[in-house]
Amino acid sequence: MESRQLAEHFAGELTAREAVLAAFRHDLDEKLTFREGLVALSDQRLLARNDGEPLRAWPLAQVQRLTLTDRGGLATLEALGQTGLLARWHCTVGHAKDAAALVAAFDGLRSGARAGQLDGEEEVEHEIPEAVQAQEPPRVGTLFRLLRFARPHMAWLLLGVALTLGSTAAGLVPPLLTWPLVDDVMAPYQDQVKDIREDPRLTAP
After folding, report:
1. Could you read off the pLDDT of 128-180 as tens digits, one per residue?
2. What integer best gives the mean pLDDT of the chain?
3. Least CB-packed of 79, 95, 115, 122 within 10 Å?
4. Alpha carbon of 81 to those of 22, 67, 197: distances in Å?
5. Which string of DSSP letters, residue by residue, matches 139-181?
6. C-alpha separations of 91 from 75, 98, 196 in Å
7. Please, are residues 38 and 49 in contact by the beta-carbon 8 Å criterion?
8. Closest alpha carbon to 36 in 117, 109, 95
């Protein structure tokens, strides 16, 4: 199970009696640019770590609710406390199932059930939220949402468009150069040859 492997990244951060219940990998940051990080749920805390950043942790007493939404292939997991938003993580749809499993484990833990322990013998089938399980058919608007991912690379995209237009324009240069040669030289020459062949004075014996 992949979440077991992810949980090993937090092994050195856990207390002696703390166990990880679920974990998932997110691949987008707050600006929706590609950057990986990990989120884990233990029986005592909610833990998160982004690449190159220190560990962040919230005791479960501070976390009132975890919500998972999915819009246009972009999943968002939010940790809510009594005073409002504690943290937010974004991921592509490929990681949404693991995020849904983490939410289900948290809900089970809040209700008094220790669901989905990684080191247990029995794996629990987590119910995937409807937003993740049944996605809407692709729409044109989804393509415009992808612009948020392309925005940090807009300069390279514009350069690619400019080079494409430049190569297309360069491909039109040879026909433009040979056009006068055909109209002013080749066509009159062929007409003259035709006239000479059809002239009876030149073809008579």
Report:
1. 444 444 455 556 666 666 677 777 888 888 899 999 999 998 888 888 888 88
2. 78
3. 122
4. 20, 11, 97
5. -HHHHHHTHHHHGGGHHHHHHHHHHHHHHHHHHTHHHHHHHHH
6. 5, 10, 78
7. yes
8. 95
